[in-house]
Amino acid sequence: MQDPNNIKPVSAAPTQPTTVFTPEIPRRSFILIVAGLMTGLLLGALDQTIVATAGPTIISDLGGLSLYA
Predict the structure, then answer these.
(1) pLDDT of residue 46
(2) In a domain, 35, yes or no
(3) Using CA atoms, how far apart are residues 18 and 26, in angstroms rounded to an integer?
């Protein structure tokens, strides 16, 4: 067992500074990525809007309106 009077404080600070490498994305690539994501979200929203609006009509034409919840 250690002697309680012989305990040395431990520093929480690192002894050497840490360097963080953050790669930079070129501006053109960043714009293309964001434009692609926005286009995908737009198409998904349009698709959901069209399907939600046309769903009951399509279901009734196929004879499944009684199954539609």
Answers:
(1) 95
(2) yes
(3) 25
